[in-house]
Amino acid sequence: MTRPLNFVMISPHFPTNFEPFAHRLRANGFNTLGIADTPYEELSDSLKTALTEYYRVDNMEDYDQVYRAVAYFAHKYGRIDRIESHNEYWLELDAHLRTDFNVFGYKNDDMLSIKTKRQMKEIFRQTGIKVARGEVFHSDDEARNLAKELGFPVIIKPNSGVGASDTYKIKSQAELEDFLGHQTPDVEYIMEEFIDGDIITFDGLTDHDGNIVFYSGLEYSEAVLDTLDHDNDMFYYIPREFSPELIELGKQCVKAFNVKERFFHFEFFRVKKTKDLMALEINCRPPGGLTIDMWNYADDFDIFDQYAKIVRDNQFTADVQHRYNVVYISRKANRNYAHSLEDIQAHFGDKIILIQSVPGVFAQIMGEVGILARTQTMDELRELVSYAQAKV
């Protein structure tokens, strides 16, 4: 009889909609071994039942504590087969642990290419994929010279960062000087030319050998920076159809970044003038928010279970046909909307999947209320968004 596979889950309780990973892994015969600094009694009852064992550390930032937790699991259950958080914040911790315990997946040496935007650009270029011009700067004078070379506006963001946090659109020399006087200490920044384009993504999952077994993508009503700057309503959606060019570029990226048995989230600009696709960055984890749930609603399957089957048997068994467009629609607390949530539910019926409150930490972008819906046509999707976000 073969032993159960031992899967160490880093921070299995966050975000809450990732908890099904523990459930499906356990159902597929894994030992699910959770590590976090949250007290056990604060975990959801559902997660408690899905974990084989939970090890609480005092501080997840203290590597020695987390190392000892994994060592304890290895002593008790045997060889550790996988270590994963599915979370951008813990990518380097995951890799450090995999390196020290010789576990399959990205190791320390892989982090430069998947965490730093400068190295991502280099790999994109080597692959023949267009990127925005840009470079890391280490002094105020280097920043000034770069801005002169690139021309305003420019985008400044951490070379290693998550999402739109600490990201700035600098439109003039005065704004650049203001940034330089207030930049976050000890953060390495990269400056890029501003690209007038829409962000689209190519997302999915690969098997053990790096073959894409599932793909999807996202389109946005506007850039996240604009949503933050103007406190706008926003929406984003999974379309039913994807351009052959996007799929081809996505395949090249999966190969170039050696994405094996992992989720991926690749961001591209669709340049408004030329409609060309230009690589922005890669994220070797599932997309954020409710996107992973949106995949399930787009095709009525269970991506959490499929992931467990890939890890266990390297098999993906779902029949993915891209049956629906799925949209997330934000509603802000400070807006006077023309239609109530009850009106929306009554008007669109079974097209509405769920309506939920959004935790405060995400509300600035995602709205205090999020509406998830699916349609078979883009016309229906646009009508739904227009109705839900109409103002008095």
From TrEMBL:
InterPro entries: ATP-dep_AA_Ligase, ATP-grasp, ATP_grasp_subdomain_1. GO terms for molecular function: ATP binding; ligase activity; metal ion binding. Keywords: ATP-binding, Ligase, Nucleotide-binding. Residues 121-312 form the ATP-grasp domain. Coiled coil: none annotated. It comes from the Bacteria. This is ATP-grasp domain-containing protein.
